[in-house]
Amino acid sequence: MKIQGNIITVGLAPAWDLTCQGNHLDWGDHPVLKDQHLVAAGKALNVSRALAWLGRESIASGWWGQDDFAQMQTHLVQTCPRIRTHMTPVKGATRINVTVLDLAQHRELHLRAQSSLASPIAFKSLQKDLQKNAQTNTVTVLAGALPDASYTNQVLALARSCHQAPATGLVADSHGPVFNSLVQAGLPWLIKPNVTELSELLGTPIPNRVSSLLKAARTLTHRVPNILISRGKHGALLVTSDQAWQGQCLTRGRVISTVGCGDYLLAGYLYGLTKYTQPKTALALALKIATARAWAWTHEKTWATTKKQIQVQVKAL
After folding, report:
1. How far apart are the first and last CA of the chain?
2. Which secondary-structure segment (H or E) carries 307?
3. Tally of CB atoms within 10 A around 46
4. How crowded is residue 315: how many other Cβ atoms within 10 Å of its Cβ?
5. Cα–Cα 20 to 30 A to 257, which of 20, 103, 112, 281?
6. pLDDT tens for residues 212-268?
7. How confident is the model at residue 138 (pLDDT cuts 50, 70, 90)?
8. What is the 8-class DSSP label of residue 165?
9. What pLDDT sits at residue 146?
């Protein structure tokens, strides 16, 4: 399959990501940080940002708090002009997530806040906004945390509206009971779990081994025809209804942060499908892009440079 239309990302739990970097950070100390920066994020918006780095436009939709809506719009215009913002403003403020990076000791601390934007009114407003952007061959990416189980019916209705629109497919990247309901309903065309999320989805621990992951993913392909599994430093596994590939990076580099690598893997795979029809080739591109994110090259280098300097291997299973 080759993606030819728009890519719309939908986030129901957006966030401001505050990243703080320093050396030898320990409890009780008062260190001066080496750097800190604040960006509008959340998994869905991270996918749009990754596509923008690759030179591909996308439509970023979903909820954003009214209290900081104007700040988000200004920020994205200044930092990511390739992202076409169609967010739905809803009552409240967008949460702030904090990531602390100890560069000297190669440690990370992730502090995550709960999102409080969900409401029946918010769902109705978002569904109207999404219908305005639905076009032939649209790919809709529902990514990030989903509201609690009391909103299961609303999330399923939202997903069905995307699924039944003149769309190529619904991509879902999330976790938890509501995400499980989406999979059981057979709505996504593609899901992108990591190993922990796949284990949660199937209700049993799965070792991070190719044979175990392949066997587990095969039990889902009658509902979801494409499963992209992120495996951290071990690369990724792509399983379809009739084929499978494993891939990993061959080039060595220094990992700065793993935050957002899964989002960049997903964005890279979708980007690959805008260029090629072969899933294997798209997976290879995805691995390069996720690696560039881990090495912080997405801040320092262009995609044109990166794709030449990172070597990956993808093998059929």
Report:
1. 20
2. helix 303-309
3. 28
4. 11
5. 281
6. 999 999 999 999 999 999 999 999 999 998 999 999 999 999 988 888 899 999 999
7. confident
8. S
9. 95
CA gap 143, 10 in Å, rounded: 6
Q: Is there a domain that residue 87 lies in?
A: no
Assigned domain for 238 exists? yes
Residue range 83-93: average pLDDT? 95
Say how far apart CA 217 and CA 194 lie, in whole Å: 11
Residue 164's pLDDT band (cuts 50, 70, 90): low
Kindly state the average pLDDT of the residues 51-68. Answer: 95
Beta bridge partners of 110: 99
Contacting residues for 133 by C-beta, under 8 A, at least 6 apart: 6, 8, 59, 61, 86
Residue 134 placed within a domain:
no
How many domains does the chain fold into?
1
Among the listed residues 310, 270, 309, the one whose alpha carbon sits nearest the alpha carbon of residue 286: 270
Q: Kindly state whether residue 284 falls inside one of the protein's structural domains.
A: yes
pTM: 0.91
- The DSSP H or E segment spanning 77 is helix 69-79
Nearest residue to 169 via CA among 91, 88, 224, 105:
224
Query: Measured between alpha carbons, how far is 42 from 270 in angstroms, rounded to an integer?
Result: 18
Give which of 189, 150, 20 is closest to 98, Cα–Cα.
Answer: 20
